[in-house]
């Protein structure tokens, strides 16, 4: 062991401990394991809990050792000794006692070692030793340690999920005990230990309402994986999952999982179909999922099929085109499974018209006939009338029609050769017969077939009529337009009914999904924005940029009043947010609340927002109109998160909502009486005592009380507690880069009394008397910094 380490650890010499930092890392690298073993002996001694000197020596030595390990990249060499010391902490109390929330001595050791070990989560040899120990820390009652472990274990689950899989039970129990951060681990370990998680699936799904939004997404991901791989395991949880559909942030993902469950266990969804219909009615974007669940339930029996068909057919004639293929897919699967529902004439009905409304009308009529037949108590079901059975004419016409049927059949067979239809053998088990792509192909084929068939049937009808009057019709030629007009009698009238008789903007917007949504919710949006704008400011500018963690919104806020002492007359308050979608939605609602008519996608302001939206989306993702119409207003939880972010960047120190002006004004424009005082030469904005941290090592708690004065462009402070003592070098506010509250996970338990001031050359850590004084100092410093920057901007503008 190095001589200095031997002296400091052997003699518990605190006076020389700081000298360890003057040694080169390479000079002590060989003896680090020995030093760790010696620290383990000291920390396990009976008097360690009461010996402040020994605790200080150990704390400094651990910091020096972990620094050397990181700098020399020797974690694998010293991992055994490091994990050994770490594990020894488990033999001691780690839980803070009573009102004193400060970590116990061994909790401090464990905390200092944790990051050094677990930040090497991609190193297998280290993780093999560390993971079993880390999992044991989860159950020791120290929330701070548990949170740190959870964060690193989540990263380890991404890199080496196999190492965590054998600890799935302990991790799951920790999650159920309230350590929700570990939820992100469960989707990674589930494929390797599904049975373990299956045992706790009921309790896990029951946690949903207790979780924050990010944690809910991890649980949702787990539910989705279970639904994909073992959907039957979720069938007992269907009532719970359906109860969460009211939370619009979860609806789409949960419906996707329920679709998977319905394929494996359709009976578990039977009693929830009415609730699902309400969900689809409230948000038509989810109709596809609800239709698939109805189709799966309908396979159970003919009775269930009939009930599902009635619902699906009712949608076919009223929903927009994007859902038609899904609805036809489900309808065909059911009518193929139970042909008697339509009297065996499903194919003919599909081919009688290219209008989905007409198809829906015909299907609905057949289902009504089926219901009426059942009500008559066993009477035979009438055969489906052929679309050309009522053609007039004698036997010649019938014979001609029969010959035509042969030609039609030949034509259909030929079309079948061009696009082969998938055939599934009859089976007693529920199954799906058509894929979506096959349904689309068949629809296109039948449209072409229908065109030819319509022409032929019209020829039969014409020839039959003419044979009655004795005319020879062999040379008659028919135009395509006339034939199609006979086949689709309702198409023209339907289009007429859909033609709006309103103003020009309504004409533009009638087919505009966003226009319709905004028109129907104008009052709701106006009421929402009236309250929202007093809590969340509307950005003056927004730009979308890529970052290593995805797209971010670069937002700018300024003061609209721009008074004499305005903080943001020539500059802006800038914010980077990882929630661009939410900001875009808020800006849309604000624009609509200011407009007396519904906005539409052709409006220039909407096109600008749509352009921003498209920059945040992957190819093939939701369109702007689709996304903006999913929810009328954002969820309360999302708005709360925005407020928290604005608080973290100290926005509310610098801006306040003015009811008189109806907008967010800067501190000076909101408080002109203070602006006058502050801008008097030498007049302090705030002054008083603060504690400054003296030692460069953050783990040593050594504070000195100083007297600070905030005036003009400087933060002045004295060497002593009196304002009459000599000045140190002042802090130039124009050089301050940021001011932040010290993170709560630090050792200073009086937080948030402490805050940091970052300049281009130094960081100052200061602590106020209490939280109230800390808030006052933070606001005044932020205002003064903004004022200094604005003054520089004005001077630069004047110079230019």
UniProtKB/TrEMBL annotation:
> What is the membrane topology noted in the UniProt record heading this document?
Peripheral membrane protein
Keyword check for Membrane: yes
| UniProt-listed GO biological process terms | brain development; ear morphogenesis; regulation of signal transduction
Which compartment or compartments is the protein found in?
A: Cell membrane
Gene Ontology cellular component list = plasma membrane
Q: Which UniProt keywords apply?
A: Cell membrane, Membrane
> Which molecular function GO terms apply here?
phosphatidylinositol-5-phosphate binding
Q: Where is this region: Disordered?
A: 479-506
Domain (PH): residue spans on this chain: 683-786
Q: What is its main location?
A: membrane
**Cross-referenced InterPro entries, in alphabetical order?**
Melted-like (IPR039888), PH-like_dom_sf (IPR011993), PH_domain (IPR001849)
Biased segments, Polar residues type: 479-498
Q: Does the keyword Secreted apply?
A: no
Q: Tell me the domain of life.
A: Eukaryota
Alphabetized Pfam families for the sequence: PH
PANTHER family associated with the record: VENTRICULAR ZONE-EXPRESSED PH DOMAIN-CONTAINING PROTEIN HOMOLOG 1, VEPH-A/MELTED
The record's family statement is: Belongs to the MELT/VEPH family.
Name-wise, this protein is: Ventricular zone expressed PH domain containing 1
Q: Please report the organism this UniProt entry assigns to the protein.
A: Stegastes partitus
| Native organism taxonomy | Eukaryota, Metazoa, Chordata, Craniata, Vertebrata
């Amino acid at each position: 062991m190095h001589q200095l380490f031997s002296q400091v650890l052997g003699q518990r010499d605190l006076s020389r401990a700081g000298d360890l930092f003057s040694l080169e890392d390479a000079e002590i690298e060989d003896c680090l394991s020995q030093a760790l073993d010696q620290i383990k002996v000291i920390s396990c001694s009976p008097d360690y809990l009461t010996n402040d000197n020994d605790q200080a020596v150990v704390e400094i030595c651990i910091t020096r050792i972990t620094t050397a390990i990181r700098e020399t990249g020797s974690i694998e060499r010293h991992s055994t000794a490091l994990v050994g010391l770490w594990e020894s902490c488990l033999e001691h109390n780690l839980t803070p006692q009573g009102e004193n929330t400060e970590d116990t001595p061994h909790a401090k050791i464990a905390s200092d070692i944790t990051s050094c070990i677990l930040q090497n989560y991609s190193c297998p040899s280290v993780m093999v030793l560390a993971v079993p120990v880390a999992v044991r820390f989860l159950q020791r009652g120290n929330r701070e340690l548990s949170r740190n472990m959870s964060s690193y274990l989540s990263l380890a689950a991404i890199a080496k999920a196999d190492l965590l899989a054998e600890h799935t039970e302990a991790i799951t129990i920790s999650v159920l005990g309230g350590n929700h951060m570990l939820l992100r681990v469960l989707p990674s370990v589930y494929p390797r230990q599904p049975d373990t998680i299956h045992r706790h699936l009921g309790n896990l799904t029951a946690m949903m309402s207790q979780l924050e939004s990010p944690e809910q997404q991890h649980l949702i991901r787990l539910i989705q994986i279970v639904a994909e791989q073992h959907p039957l395991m979720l069938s007992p949880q269907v009532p719970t999952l359906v109860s969460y559909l009211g939370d619009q942030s979860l609806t789409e993902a949960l419906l996707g999982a329920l679709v998977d469950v319905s394929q494996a266990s359709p009976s578990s969804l039977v009693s929830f179909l009415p609730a699902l219909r309400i969900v689809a009615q409230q948000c038509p974007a989810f109709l596809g999922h609800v239709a698939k669940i109805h189709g799966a339930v309908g396979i159970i029996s003919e009775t269930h099929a009939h009930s599902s068909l009635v619902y699906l057919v009712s949608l076919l004639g009223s929903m927009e085109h994007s859902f038609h293929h899904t609805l036809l897919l489900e309808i065909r699967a059911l009518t193929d499974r139970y042909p008697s529902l339509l009297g065996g004439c499903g194919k003919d009905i599909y081919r009688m018209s290219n209008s989905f409304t007409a198809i829906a009308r015909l299907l609905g009529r057949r289902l009504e006939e089926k219901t009426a037949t059942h009500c008559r108590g066993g009477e035979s079901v009438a055969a489906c009338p052929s679309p050309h059975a009522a053609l007039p004419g004698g036997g010649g016409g019938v014979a001609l029609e029969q010959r035509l049927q042969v030609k039609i059949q030949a034509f259909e067979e030929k079309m079948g050769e061009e696009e082969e239809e998938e055939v599934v053998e009859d089976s007693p088990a529920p199954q799906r017969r058509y894929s979506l792509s096959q349904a689309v192909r068949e629809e296109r084929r039948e449209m072409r077939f229908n065109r030819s068939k319509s022409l032929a049937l019209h020829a039969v009808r014409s020839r039959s009529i003419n044979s009655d009057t004795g005319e020879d019709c062999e040379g008659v030629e028919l135009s395509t337009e006339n034939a199609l007009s006979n086949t689709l009698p309702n198409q023209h009238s339907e289009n007429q009914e859909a033609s709006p008789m309103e103003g020009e903007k309504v004409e533009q917007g009638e087919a505009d999904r966003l226009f319709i949504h905004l028109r129907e919710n104008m009052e709701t949006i106006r009421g929402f924005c009236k309250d929202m704008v007093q809590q969340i400011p509307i950005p003056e500018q927004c730009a979308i940029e890529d970052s290593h963690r995805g797209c971010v919104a670069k937002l700018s806020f300024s003061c609209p009043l721009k008074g004499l002492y305005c903080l943001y007359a020539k500059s802006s308050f800038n914010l980077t947010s990882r929630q661009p979608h939410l900001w875009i939605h808020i800006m849309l609602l604000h624009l609509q609340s200011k407009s007396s008519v519904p906005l539409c996608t052709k409006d220039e302001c909407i096109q600008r927002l749509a352009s921003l939206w498209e920059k945040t989306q992957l190819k093939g993702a939701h369109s702007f109109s689709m996304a903006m119409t999913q929810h009328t207003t954002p969820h309360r939880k999302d708005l709360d998160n925005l407020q928290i972010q604005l608080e973290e960047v100290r926005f509310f120190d610098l801006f306040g909502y003015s009811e008189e002006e109806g907008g967010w004004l800067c501190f000076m424009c909101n408080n002109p009486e203070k602006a006058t005082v502050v801008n008097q030469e030498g007049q302090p904005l705030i002054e008083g005592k603060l504690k400054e941290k003296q030692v460069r090592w953050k783990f040593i708690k050594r504070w000195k009380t100083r007297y600070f004065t905030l005036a003009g462009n400087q933060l002045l402070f004295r060497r002593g507690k009196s304002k009459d003592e000599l000045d140190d070098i002042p802090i130039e506010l124009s050089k301050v880069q940021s001011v932040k509250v010290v993170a709560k996970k630090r050792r200073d338990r009086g937080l948030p009394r402490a805050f940091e001031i970052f300049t281009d050359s130094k960081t100052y850590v200061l602590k106020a008397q209490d939280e109230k004084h800390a808030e006052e100092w933070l606001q005044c410093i932020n205002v003064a910094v903004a004022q200094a920057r604005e003054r520089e901007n004005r001077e630069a503008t004047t110079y230019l």
